[in-house]
TrEMBL record:
NCBIfam families: nadE. GO terms for cellular component: cytosol. Its EC number is 6.3.5.1. CDD domains: GAT_Gln-NAD-synth, NAD_synthase. Keywords: ATP-binding, Ligase, NAD, Nucleotide-binding. This is Glutamine-dependent NAD(+) synthetase. Pathway: Cofactor biosynthesis; NAD(+) biosynthesis; NAD(+) from deamido-NAD(+) (L-Gln route): step 1/1. InterPro entries: C-N_Hydrolase, C-N_Hydrolase_sf, Gln-dep_NAD_synthase, NAD/GMP_synthase, NAD_synthase, Rossmann-like_a/b/a_fold.
Length: 695
C-alpha cells in the first residue's frame, strides 16, 4: 500500500572547519541510516562546515570547501537510493544564506534557505547570514561548476518549497524556525505536508532539554504529522556544548529519542511510521481542516521516489515512548565532561592540571574530570573505537585500554594543592583525600617563598612593607597581599602544567582548568589573573547552588566520601591570616551577599533584563517576608556597585562551558560596558524616592 515510511535523523559531533572529519561523519551516518532501511536521512544545521565557524563564514574558502564536500557526497555510491538532507552556507545572488541542500541519486532536489535566524544569547546568525524573506517563493540557483560536473544540472530550485514524493510530502524547518511564533510547520501542515524536518545547532543549557522536546511534540499535537529533529553534538570549537537529543515524533508523541550526552561522534535514529496514522489523526480535527481549505499553497518539488515500499502491510511500525530527562545534577556530571573530552582530544594535549583547593568549586571541577574518565571507560567497554583511539593518543600508548576510571584519571589528570601560611590543614587534607579517591596524580606545594620574594621586591623598591588588616594594615594593603598569593598560584599552575609530565618522563603538556563559578564571576569575586585564569573552565556557567547539589550527587553516585567534609565547610578563599589556626575569612562575608542572593540578582539582571530600579521593584515583593524596602534597596545598590566595579574582569574571563542563561560571559553572550559610572546616581535616586514613598 505504501504507507510505512522509514526515516533517519542523527546527532553528529561536527567540528568547525574540519571538512575532512565532518565529511567522514556524514558518510558514516548515511551508511548507518541505509543499513537500517531508511529512505530519508536528516543531518544537523550547517553540518558540512560545522555550525561554529563564526566570522569564517565571511571567507570564500568556507563556501568553496563546503561545495567540495557536497560534490564528494553527490558522487559517492553511499548516497544512492536515499534522500540526503545536509546543511551548508550558500551564496545566492551575492547574498549568503544558511541552507539545507536536499539531494537524491546525484541530483539536487531543492536548496532551502533559513527563514528565521537565531540572533539572541550566544547566536549571531544575522551577522553572517540573511533570512529568506520570500514566503512560498522559489528562484533558480545557478550551481558552481564543481557541482554541475557531478550532478549534470545547471540550475536547481532555491527557496521556500516542499518535496512531494510518490507517497508523501516533506517540508523543512531549520533550528530557530521551530522556536518562532509563526513556525513554518503550521502552514506547511495545513497545506498537506506530512513529514516535517528540523536541522538544529542547539546548545545545552541546564533544564532546557524539555523545552525543545515539548516544542517538537506540540508541533504535531495540534496539526498531526511526523516531526524529525537532528542536532549537532559536542564541542565544535568554543564555549558551547551541542547536546544532541535527536528525536522523532508523531501526532504529539515521541517515538524515538537520542542521547543528550555521549562520546559517540555519530548517533543515528531510525523509525518506521505509518502515514495513515497521520491522515486519520488529522481527519477528525475539523478546525484544522477548515483552515487547510483556505491555506496558500507551497511550491512543490516533485520527486520520483518513495519513502515506503508497495508491499508493507506486515512492516512493524514504532510505538510512542516516554522521554527520559536528566536531572540537573546528571546534566552537570555529563555535559561538561563530554565538552572536556572533546577539548582534550582535539587540542592534542596530554591531560589536565587543576589547582585543587579543597573547596566546593575546585572539587566540583575535579569530579567533572572524574566523570569524564567514567564516560571514556564506559564508551570503550561498549566498543567505541574512536574513543579508544583518542585515549591511546592522549596517553601515548598504542596498546592502552582504559578500563578503570581511577587508573585513567591518574594518567591524564594532575591536581595541585598550593598551600600558604594562610591555608588550613583541613583544606589540605580534603584536597588530598579527594585526589586519592578519584585517582589523580596529586602534588602538594607551598607558595610562601614566592610570595615573600615578590613582596620583598616591592619593599626593597619602596621602603614600605604592606600588612594584612588583622596586623594593622589598610584595606588596600590587605587586598594587594591576597592578590599576590592568588596570582602566584596562576603562574605556578601554568609552570607545572607545562613541565609536570616532563618530570615524570612522559611527553606532552597539560591544559590548566579554572574553577570560578558563574555567581563569583557575576559579582567579580575573584582576582584578575589568578587561578580563575586558565585554559578552560567547566563550571564557569554553573551556579554555586547547583554545584552543591552536584557534589551531593557525586557522593551518592561515585561514592566519593571525601566530598562530605567539603560540602559542610564554609566557602573560603584562604587568603587572609588564620586566627588560632582556624579560617576566619569566608566568601559570603567578603562579598556582602549570599550565593543564593547572587543567583537571584543574576537571573533578574540578565534573564529578566532588570536594571537597578526594576530589580528593586521586583525584590521588594519577592523578599517582603524577610526584608524591608530599605534593606532591599541597600542590597540592590551593593550588588550593582560591586558588579560594575568588577565588570572589567569579565573581559579576561577564562572560556567557560555555557550552562546558565544568566552567564556574565563578556565574549558574546552578555554584551555590556566594562567601564561603568559606579555611582549609578540617577538609578539609585529613583530607588531612594520609592523607598521614601513606601516608608
Amino acid at each position: 500500500m505504501g504507507r510505512a515510511v522509514t526515516v533517519a535523523t542523527c546527532a553528529l559531533n561536527q567540528w568547525a572547519l574540519d571538512f575532512e572529519g565532518n565529511l567522514e561523519r556524514i558518510f558514516r551516518s548515511i551508511d548507518i541510516a541505509k543499513s537500517r532501511g531508511a529512505r530519508y536521512r536528516l543531518g544537523p544545521e550547517l553540518e558540512i562546515c560545522g555550525y561554529g565557524c563564526s566570522d569564517h563564514y565571511y571567507e570564500s574558502d568556507t563556501l568553496l570547501h563546503s561545495f567540495q564536500v557536497l560534490a564528494k557526497l553527490l558522487e559517492s555510491p553511499a548516497t544512492q537510493d536515499i534522500i540526503c538532507d545536509v546543511g551548508m552556507p550558500v551564496l545566492h545572488r551575492n547574498v549568503r544564506y544558511n541552507c539545507r541542500v536536499i539531494f537524491l541519486n546525484k541530483k539536487i532536489l531543492l536548496i532551502r534557505p533559513k527563514i528565521s535566524l537565531a540572533n539572541a544569547g550566544n547566536y549571531r546568525e544575522l551577522r553572517w547570514f540573511t533570512p529568506w524573506n520570500k514566503a512560498r517563493h522559489v528562484e533558480e540557483y545557478f550551481l558552481p561548476r564543481i557541482i554541475q560536473e557531478v550532478a549534470g544540472q545547471e540550475t536547481v530550485p532555491f527557496g521556500d518549497a516542499v518535496l512531494a514524493t510518490k507517497d508523501t510530502c516533506l517540508g523543512a524547518e531549520i533550528c530557530e524556525e521551530l522556536w518562532a511564533p509563526n513556525s513554518p510547520h503550521i502552514e506547511m501542515g495545513l497545506d498537506g505536508v506530512e513529514i516535517f524536518t528540523n536541522s538544529s545547532g542547539s546548545h545545552h543549557v541546564l533544564r532546557k532539554a524539555h523545552t525543545r522536546v515539548d516544542l517538537v511534540n506540540s508541533a504535531t499535537a495540534k496539526n498531526g504529522g511526523i516531526y524529525i529533529l537532528a542536532n549537532q553534538k559536542g564541542c565544535d570549537g568554543d564555549r558551547l556544548y551541542y547536546d544532541g537529543c535527536a528525536m522523532i515524533s508523531m501526532n504529539g508523541e515521541t517515538v524515538a529519542q537520542g542521547s543528550q550526552f555521549s562520546l559517540d561522534d555519530v548517533e543515528v535514529l531510525v523509525a518506521t511510521l505509518d502515514l495513515e496514522d497521520v491522515r486519520s489523526y488529522r481527519a477528525e480535527i475539523s478546525s484544522r481542516n477548515l483552515a487547510a481549505s483556505k491555506v496558500n499553497p507551497y511550491p512543490r518539488v516533485k520527486v520520483n521516489f518513495a519513502l515506503s515500499c508497495s508491499d508493507d502491510v506486515a512492516v512493524p511500525t514504532c510505538m510512542p515512548i516516554q522521554w527520559r530527562h536528566h536531572s540537573p545534577e546528571e546534566e552537570i556530571s555529563l555535559g561538561p565532561a563530554c565538552w572536556l573530552w572533546d577539548y582534550l582530544r582535539r587540542s592534542k594535549q596530554a591531560g589536565f592540571l587543576l589547582p585543587l583547593s579543597g573547596g566546593i568549586d575546585s572539587s566540583a571541577t575535579a569530579c567533572i574530570v572524574y566523570s569524564m574518565c567514567h564516560q571514556v571507560c564506559l564508551a570503550v567497554k561498549n566498543g567505541n573505537a574512536d574513543v579508544l583511539a583518542d585515549a591511546r593518543k592522549i596517553v601515548n600508548d598504542e596498546t592502552y585500554v582504559p578500563e578503570d576510571p581511577r587508573e585513567f584519571c591518574k594518567r591524564i589528570f594532575t591536581t595541585c594543592y598550593m598551600a600558604s601560611e594562610n591555608s588550613s590543614q583541613d583544606t589540605c587534607n580534603r584536597a588530598k583525600l579527594l585526589a586519592e579517591q578519584i585517582g589523580s596524580y596529586h602534588i602538594n606545594l607551598n607558595i610562601d617563598v614566592a610570595v615573600k620574594a615578590i613582596v620583598g621586591i616591592f619593599s626593597m623598591v619602596t621602603g614600605l612593607t604592606p600588612r594584612f588588616s588583622v596586623y594593622g594594615g589598610s584595606s588596600r594593603e590587605n587586598l594587594a597581599l591576597q592578590n599576590v598569593q592568588a596570582r602566584i598560584r596562576m603562574i605556578l599552575a601554568y609552570l607545572f602544567a607545562q613541565l609536570t609530565l616532563w618530570t615524570r618522563g612522559l611527553p606532552g603538556g597539560l591544559l590548566v582548568l579554572g574553577s570560578a563559578n558563574v555567581d563569583e564571576s557575576l559579582r567579580g569575586y575573584l582576582t584578575k589573573y589568578d587561578c580563575s585564569s586558565a585554559d578552560i573552565n567547566p563550571i564557569g556557567g554553573i551556579s554555586k547552588t547547583d554545584l552543591k547539589n552536584f557534589i551531593q550527587y557525586c557522593i551518592e553516585n561515585f561514592q566519593l566520601t571525601a566530598l562530605r567534609s567539603i560540602m559542610s565547610a564554609p566557602p573560603t578563599a584562604e587568603l587572609e591570616p588564620l586566627v588560632e589556626g582556624q579560617v576566619a575569612q569566608t566568601d559570603e562575608a567578603d562579598m556582602g551577599m549570599t550565593y543564593a542572593e547572587l543567583s537571584i540578582y543574576g537571573k533578574l539582571r540578565k534573564i529578566a533584563k532588570a536594571g537597578p530600579y526594576s530589580m528593586f521593584c521586583k525584590l521588594i515583593n519577592m523578599w517582603k517576608e524577610i526584608c524591608t524596602p530599605r534593606e532591599v534597596a541597600s542590597k540592590v545598590k551593593h550588588f550593582f556597585r560591586m558588579y560594575s566595579i568588577n565588570r572589567h574582569k569579565m573581559t579576561t574571563l577564562t572560556p567557560s562551558y555555557h550552562a546558565e542563561n544568566y552567564s556574565p560571559d563578556d565574549n558574546r553572550f552578555d554584551l555590556r560596558p566594562f567601564l561603568y559610572n559606579t555611582t549609578w546616581s540617577w538609578q539609585f535616586r529613583c530607588i531612594d524616592k520609592q523607598v521614601n514613598a513606601l516608608d
